[in-house]
Write a structure and sequence with these properties.
357 residues; alpha/beta; N Utilization Substance Protein A, Chain:P, domain 4; OB fold (Dihydrolipoamide Acetyltransferase, E2P); GMP Synthetase, Chain A, domain 3; five-stranded mixed beta barrel; four-stranded mixed sheet; 15 strands
């Protein structure tokens, strides 16, 4: 058989699908062996010899040379093999006959094609799955393919893998339309009982925000600025505490960027979600005061035993400190891991009195 196009296709398959020539040859051998069995009823192993220089493909059936034959279809004794050629040794392939594609009927050939295609498809899925496992915890580009039952199904760019973004992983209020190209965070890869693989993606988790800061802020990416903790209510507000071992480096300013360019880019990607970048502090009173940003706390009293804090804010800033439906103080509590009560300044005298009594 002479086929220049076959060798070109083999190179292309290896380059584009990342499937090795060796695997393709193994699949081809399995397919032809199945076709041969269907055609003749004999279960023979098949060997394929390629000569790229001459663009030739030769196909042979063979038996393995063994001491004691257990499977006559696939094995031949060393004694019998050496009657044909004295050079045979144990484990060698004893060539029986050369095959021609013309020997196979259309049905047998179709059967071979199905086996080859299935093997290559399975291998491609495995390669893509391995690649996606390596991208777990990263941000990838995806195209929205459909929206069903509030779940958003996407195709991961460059992989043809399907990803699912469930309601809990979506940014509240964000609209998702078919064919939109979006960035998503790869949370995990799961395999169903049927063997189908699916990528769980998110835009609503804290990992998405963390990766956005690493992509947008060189100091975070290099480790000069460390994100100590992030808390988030997707679609509304994110708070993150940052710090740096370099006293000359403004960790908050690095994240915000000149004229707010860096953080504005992240806010835009998050569809307008508010972000509070806070300087981390080991002193709980100071850290709690900062965590209530954008409100300014006048003072913070802490109860170490109960790990509870009372923050005093100006009366006119009370609603800002608490936030809509308690969101700001709730996130501040999650960030600091302290229970926080916010009180207006007008009640300060009573609180101070309780402290001294």
């Amino acid at each position: 058989m002479t086929n220049k196009d076959f060798f070109l296709a083999l190179d292309q398959l290896e380059k584009e699908k990342k499937i090795s020539k060796e695997l393709f040859i193994e699949s081809l051998q399995a397919g032809i062996s199945a076709a041969y069995k269907k055609e003749t009823g004999l279960n023979r192993a098949v060997d394929i010899m390629l000569n790229p220089a001459k663009n030739t493909i030769r196909i042979f059936t063979y038996k393995i040379v063994v001491n004691e034959v257990e499977d006559e279809d696939k094995e031949i004794s060393l004694e019998e093999a050496r009657k044909v050629k004295p050079i045979y040794n144990l484990g060698d392939h004893f060539i029986e006959e050369e095959l021609s594609p013309k020997l196979f009927t259309r049905i047998a050939a179709q059967n071979a094609k199905q086996i080859i295609t299935q093997r290559l498809t399975d291998e491609h899925k495995k390669l893509v799955l391995d690649e996606m496992n390596e991208k777990e915890g990263e941000i990838v580009t995806a195209t929205i393919r459909r929206v069903e039952n509030n779940n958003v199904y996407v195709e991961i760019s460059g992989s043809q893998m399907e990803g699912i973004m469930m309601p809990s992983d979506q940014i509240r209020g964000e609209k998702y339309s078919v064919n939109d190209i979006i960035k998503v965070y790869v949370k995990s890869v799961r395999t169903s009982t049927k063997g189908n693989s699916q990528v769980i993606v998110s835009r609503g988790c804290v990992g998405f925000v963390k990766r956005l800061f690493e992509m947008e802020v060189p100091e975070v990416r290099s480790g000069l600025v460390v994100i100590k903790k992030i808390v988030r209510e997707a679609g509304y507000r994110t708070k993150l505490a940052v710090t740096s071992d370099d006293p000359s480096l403004d960790s908050v300013g690095s994240c915000i960027g000149q004229r707010g360019m860096r953080i504005n880019s992240i806010v835009h990607e998050l569809d307008g979600e508010k972000i509070d970048v806070i300087e981390w502090c080991a002193d709980p009173s100071e850290f709690i005061a900062r965590a209530l940003s954008p409100a300014k706390a006048m003072m913070v009293q802490i109860n170490e035993e109960e790990k509870r804090a009372t923050a005093i804010v100006p009366d006119e800033k009370l609603s800002l400190a608490i936030g809509k439906a308690g969101q700001n103080v709730r996130l501040a509590a999650k960030l600091t891991e302290w229970k926080i009560d916010v009180k207006p300044f007008s009640e300060m005298s009573n609180i101070v009195g309780d402290v001294f009594n």
